[in-house]
C-alpha cells in the first residue's frame, strides 16, 4: 500500500474528531476507552481480514485439538487402573493430537505474524504520508521528537501486540471457553471452585489494567519528550558548543531520562502486581483442585483418570492465565499507543486541494497579488492590502526591513498559508483552484534558512530528481557560485555535506540550496533572502547568472539588502506589511522615500543591512 492509499484508508474509514476535539490542547486529549482506541485500527486491518480470520481459526482449533489430549490420557489411565494392557489406541490418539495441534498452531502463528508485519508497515506509511501533508500549525503543536516516537515506538507497540500478545489473547479466550465444558463433564463441583477463584482474579486485574493503561500513555509520552530533547540538542550542536552549554544540555537530558525511567518504573511495578496476581491465582486453584479432587477420588466420587484429566484442563487454563499478565500488558500498551497515534492521524492537513483542483494547468509566470491581507493566528497582521502585478519573465525584488512580511508573502504564494483577505492569481487563475502539487512544481521556493539533507552535494542539488545528468548539476552549481566549493571537496559532487550541511559554511549552504532551486527551471522562482551570506561582488555575479539562466521565466527575490534590489526589473518596497513604493532602482532612489532611506543607511553601514520594522 503506498502512502496515498494508506492516507485514503485512514480518512475514509477512521473516525474523525469533532471540531471541539480538534481544538483541544494536546495534553487534554481524551483517553479513548480501551476497545474504542483499538477499534480505530479496523480500516488498517481490513485488507488482511481473510488472512487474519485463517490465523484466528487455526489458533482456536489448535486449542480445541489440545482439549482432546486429557480425555485420551484419562482413558489410558483408567484402562491401566482397571488392569487393561492394550493402550495402542490411546497412544496413537495422543501422537495424532500432538501432530495436529503443532500443524494448526504453526499455520496460525505464521499467518498472524504476516498480518502484524503488514499492519505495522501500513500504519508507518500512512502516518508518514499524513505527516508529510501537515502544515506549519501542526508542526508548531507537536514537537518533532514526539512525532517520531509516535510514528516508530507507538506503532512498534501495536505491532508487538498483534505479533505475540494477540495469540495469547486468542489462547485465553479459546481455552477459557473450551476447557470449562470438558471440566464440567469431569467434575461440576471442582469447576465451581476454579471459577470462583477466576472471577476474583478477573475483577482485581481489571482494576489494575486501568492504571497500567494510563501509565503506558505516560511512558510513551515521556519517550517522545526524550526523543525530542535528543533531536533538539543534536540539531543545535553548534550553538551549544559556541555557548559552552554542554553541561547544562547533559543535565537537561538527564532530567528527561530520569522522568522516563521513573514512569517506566511505575509501570513495571503495576505490571509486577499483575504477574503476582496471576501466579497467586494459579497456585490457589491447583491447591483447591488437588485437595478437593483428591478426597473425591478417595471417596470413589471421581476416577483417577477424571481427576488427572481435570488437572490437565486446569493446567491449560492456568498456563494461559499465567501468560495473560503479559498479554493484557501488551494490549494496554497497544491501546495507549493507538490513542497517541490517532491523535495525530485525526488532524486534517491545514491546506488541502479543492475538490475540483486543476492538476495540469500550464504556468507561464504572470502573478497577480490582489488586495492580499494576512493575519497570523496570534493576531499579528503581517500583510495589509498588498497588490502586485508581475509579468512573465520579470526579475522582481521585494525589499523591506526585518519583519515587514516578505517571507509571509512567499509562503502565501506557495499556499503554505491561506490569505485572510484578497487572493493570488497565477496566469489569471486563483491559486486555490490549482492543485498543491502543480502549484509547488510551478513555483519553486528557496527558503531563507537553507535545509540540507545529510547526503552529497549532487543528491542535495538534484533532490527532486536523482536521475538528472551531472552536466545539469554542474550548471546549477556554477549559476549559484558553488562550483569552486564542490571542486575543492574530496569527492567532488559526491562529497557529503554532513548532517544538515554541518560541514559547510553558512554561505555554502545558502548556495547549495540556491542551486537546488535553480536546477528545477520552474516558471516562477521565489528566493527568500538567499544572498544574505554572500558578499556584494559574489551576489552581483550570481544575480547576473540567474538573469541569464532564467530568461523568460519569472523570478521573485525577497531581501532586505538594497544591493540585491539594484539588479531588479522592478522593486516593491514593503513597510509594515503594506506596499509603500514600487519602481526601478534609480526611480526609487530619486524619490527620496523609504527605499532611498534604506539605501542611504546601508551604504553608510553596509552590514548588517536595513533597520528593524519593529
Ligand atoms: N508563525 C508565525 N506566527 C505569528 N507571527 C508570525 C509568524 N511568522 C511570522 N510572524 C510575524 O509576522 C511578521 C512578518 O514576518 P515575516 O517572516 O514575513 O517577515 P520578513 O519580512 O520575512 O522578515 P525577515 O526579513 O526577518 O525574514 C513578523 O512580525 C513576524 O513576527
From TrEMBL:
Could you tell me one molecular function GO term of this UniProt entry? Answer: ATP binding
Q: What is the predominant subcellular site recorded for this chain?
A: membrane
Under the cellular component aspect of Gene Ontology, which terms does the record hold?
plasma membrane
- Transmembrane stretches, by residue range? 52-73, 85-104, 160-182, 188-209, 277-296, 302-321
- Record the organism: Methylocystis parvus
What membrane topology is annotated for this entry?
A: Multi-pass membrane protein
What domain of life does the UniProt record list for this protein's source?
Answer: Bacteria
Query: Has the keyword Nucleotide-binding been applied to this entry?
Result: yes
Family matches, as InterPro entries: AAA+_ATPase, ABC1_TM_dom, ABC1_TM_sf, ABC_transporter-like_ATP-bd, P-loop_NTPase, Type_1_exporter
Name of the protein described by the UniProt record: ABC transporter ATP-binding protein
Amino acid at each position: 500500500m503506498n502512502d496515498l492509499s494508506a492516507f485514503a484508508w485512514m480518512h475514509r474509514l477512521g473516525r474523525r474528531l469533532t471540531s471541539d476535539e480538534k481544538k483541544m490542547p494536546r495534553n487534554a486529549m481524551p483517553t479513548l476507552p480501551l476497545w474504542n482506541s483499538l477499534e480505530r485500527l479496523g480500516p488498517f486491518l481490513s485488507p488482511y481480514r481473510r488472512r487474519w480470520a485463517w490465523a484466528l481459526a487455526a489458533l482456536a482449533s489448535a486449542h480445541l485439538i489440545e482439549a482432546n489430549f486429557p480425555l485420551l490420557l484419562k482413558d489410558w489411565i483408567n484402562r491401566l487402573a482397571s488392569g487393561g494392557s492394550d493402550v495402542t489406541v490411546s497412544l496413537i490418539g495422543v501422537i495424532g493430537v500432538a501432530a495436529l495441534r503443532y500443524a494448526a498452531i504453526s499455520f496460525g502463528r505464521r499467518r498472524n505474524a504476516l498480518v502484524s508485519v503488514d499492519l505495522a508497515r501500513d500504519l508507518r506509511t500512512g502516518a508518514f504520508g499524513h505527516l508529510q501533508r501537515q502544515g506549519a500549525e501542526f508542526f508548531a503543536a507537536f514537537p518533532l521528537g514526539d512525532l517520531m516516537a509516535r510514528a516508530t515506538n507507538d506503532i512498534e507497540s501495536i505491532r508487538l501486540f498483534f505479533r505475540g500478545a494477540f495469540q495469547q489473547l486468542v489462547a485465553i479466550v479459546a481455552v477459557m471457553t473450551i476447557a470449562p465444558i470438558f471440566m464440567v463433564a469431569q467434575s461440576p463441583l471442582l469447576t465451581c471452585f476454579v471459577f470462583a477463584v477466576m472471577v476474583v482474579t478477573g475483577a482485581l486485574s481489571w482494576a489494575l489494567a486501568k492504571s497500567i493503561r494510563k501509565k503506558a500513555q505516560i511512558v510513551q509520552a515521556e519517550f517522545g519528550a526524550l526523543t525530542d530533547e535528543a533531536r533538539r540538542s543534536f540539531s543545535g550542536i553548534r550553538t551549544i558548543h559556541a555557548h559552552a552549554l554542554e553541561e547544562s544540555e547533559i543535565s537537561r537530558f538527564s532530567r528527561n531520562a530520569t522522568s522516563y525511567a521513573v514512569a517506566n518504573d511505575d509501570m513495571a511495578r503495576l505490571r509486577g502486581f499483575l504477574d503476582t496476581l496471576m501466579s497467586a491465582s494459579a497456585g490457589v486453584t491447583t491447591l483447591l483442585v488437588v485437595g478437593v479432587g483428591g478426597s473425591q477420588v478417595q471417596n470413589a466420587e471421581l476416577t483417577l483418570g477424571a481427576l488427572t484429566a481435570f488437572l490437565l484442563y486446569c493446567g491449560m487454563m492456568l498456563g494461559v492465565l499465567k501468560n495473560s499478565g503479559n498479554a493484557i500488558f501488551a494490549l494496554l500498551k497497544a491501546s495507549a499507543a493507538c490513542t497517541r497515534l490517532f491523535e495525530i492521524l485525526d488532524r486534517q492537513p491545514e491546506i488541502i486541494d479543492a475538490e475540483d483542483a486543476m492538476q495540469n494547468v500550464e504556468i507561464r509566470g504572470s502573478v497577480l497579488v490582489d488586495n492580499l491581507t494576512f493575519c497570523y493566528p496570534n493576531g499579528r497582521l503581517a500583510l495589509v492590502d498588498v497588490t502586485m502585478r508581475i509579468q512573465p519573465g520579470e526579475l522582481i525584488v521585494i525589499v523591506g526591513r526585518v519583519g515587514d512580511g516578505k517571507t509571509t508573502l512567499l509562503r502565501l504564494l506557495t499556499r503554505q498559508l491561506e490569505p485572510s483577505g484578497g487572493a493570488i492569481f497565477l496566469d489569471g487563475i486563483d491559486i486555490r483552484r490549482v492543485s498543491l502539487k502543480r502549484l509547488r512544481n510551478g513555483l519553486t521556493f528557496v527558503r531563507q534558512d537553507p535545509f540540507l539533507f545529510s547526503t552529497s552535494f549532487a543528491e542535495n542539488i538534484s533532490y527532486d530528481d536523482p536521475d538528472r545528468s551531472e552536466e545539469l548539476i554542474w550548471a546549477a552549481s556554477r549559476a549559484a557560485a558553488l562550483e569552486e566549493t564542490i571542486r575543492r571537496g574530496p569527492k567532488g559532487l559526491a562529497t557529503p555535506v554532513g548532517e544538515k550541511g554541518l560541514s559547510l559554511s553558512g554561505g555554502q549552504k545558502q548556495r547549495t540550496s540556491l542551486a537546488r532551486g535553480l536546477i528545477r527551471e520552474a516558471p516562477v522562482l521565489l528566493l527568500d533572502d538567499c544572498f544574505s551570506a554572500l558578499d556584494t561582488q559574489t551576489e552581483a555575479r550570481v544575480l547576473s547568472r540567474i538573469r541569464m539562466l532564467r530568461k523568460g521565466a519569472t523570478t521573485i527575490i525577497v531581501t532586505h539588502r538594497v544591493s540585491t534590489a539594484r539588479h531588479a526589473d522592478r522593486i516593491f518596497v514593503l513597510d509594515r506589511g503594506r506596499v509603500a513604493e514600487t519602481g526601478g532602482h534609480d526611480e526609487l532612489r530619486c524619490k527620496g522615500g523609504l527605499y532611498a532611506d534604506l539605501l542611504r543607511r546601508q551604504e553608510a553601514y553596509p552590514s548588517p543591512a536595513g533597520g528593524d520594522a519593529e
